Amino acid sequence: MTPHNNAKLGDYAETVLLPGDPLRAKWVAETFFENPRQVNSVRNCLGYTGTFNGKPVSVQATGMGQPSLSIYVNELIDTYGVKNLIRIGTCGGLNKRAKVRDVILAMSASNEGTMYHELFGKFTFAPTADFSLLRKAADLADQKDMTWHAGGIVSSDSFYQPLGLAAYKPLTDHDILAVEMEAAALYTIAAQKGCKALAICTISDCLITGDEIDADQRQTSLTDMAKLSLELAASL
């Protein structure tokens, strides 16, 4: 056990889905897992383990932002032996070719934060997804006729940007697809520890057009993303 997790050793599968929202973790487990059981309840950052298509899989909420995610990812890897980490969440669209409800497979994640600046010194580290996970996710999305985009995203520490869309112009000028708040830390930790990671996000709103999906569309889109992520997890 850790200060943030009361699961026992062996409670997590080697592959874990990582939503930010604890209630989304609960929804994934209760909706899709065969024989789900709750393994973590500390701070209500809920974790569950079950099976999907007969394969062991877990889901663990990480909270919002890179510092919170980093706590759970470090502990999942170091204490519980997790090998594959798949972030599932929503993102804001920053590119005209990516529409609301589209799925983003994050090849790379630029970073607004300073968490790892001291670690890399004069270098600018480029956090990237594991290619084998990315390729499998793309193949599965094609099989499902899902509209998806693979490319760069940015992990921001500020949900409410004072400058709005203008804050992201240097990135949108370089074809960044979307903004969220966790993937860069996930990719950095996975690279450091020799694990596999991928962020799969659904565009819930577009910062360019102002379009956003309503509650019913959001649930449908999240269901599609969850099924994609779980089939990916079961294929490992």
TrEMBL record:
**Residue numbers annotated as active site:** 205 (proton donor)
For this UniProt record, the keywords arranged alphabetically read as follows: Glycosyltransferase, Transferase
Reaction catalysed by this chain?
a purine 2'-deoxy-D-ribonucleoside + phosphate = a purine nucleobase + 2-deoxy-alpha-D-ribose 1-phosphate; a purine D-ribonucleoside + phosphate = a purine nucleobase + alpha-D-ribose 1-phosphate; uridine + phosphate = alpha-D-ribose 1-phosphate + uracil
Write down the InterPro entries for this protein, in alphabetical order. Answer: DeoD-type (IPR004402), Nucleoside_phosphorylase_d (IPR000845), Nucleoside_phosphorylase_sf (IPR035994)
Positions of the record's site feature: Important for catalytic activity = 218
Under Enzyme Commission nomenclature, its number is 2.4.2.1
Q: What SUPFAM superfamilies does the annotation carry?
A: Purine and uridine phosphorylases
Where, by residue number, does phosphate bind?
Answer: 20, 24, 43, 87-90
Give all residue intervals belonging to the Nucleoside phosphorylase domain: 16-229
Give the residues the record marks as binding a purine D-ribonucleoside.
Answer: 4, 180-182, 204-205
Q: Describe the protein's quaternary organization and the partners it interacts with.
A: Homohexamer; trimer of homodimers.
The similarity comment for this entry is: Belongs to the PNP/UDP phosphorylase family.
PANTHER family in the cross-refs: FI09636P-RELATED (PTHR43691:SF11), URIDINE PHOSPHORYLASE (PTHR43691)
What this protein is reported to do is described as: Catalyzes the reversible phosphorolytic breakdown of the N-glycosidic bond in the beta-(deoxy)ribonucleoside molecules, with the formation of the corresponding free purine bases and pentose-1-phosphate.
Protein name per its UniProtKB record: Purine nucleoside phosphorylase DeoD-type
Q: Species name for this entry?
A: Maritalea porphyrae
Supply the gene name: deoD_1
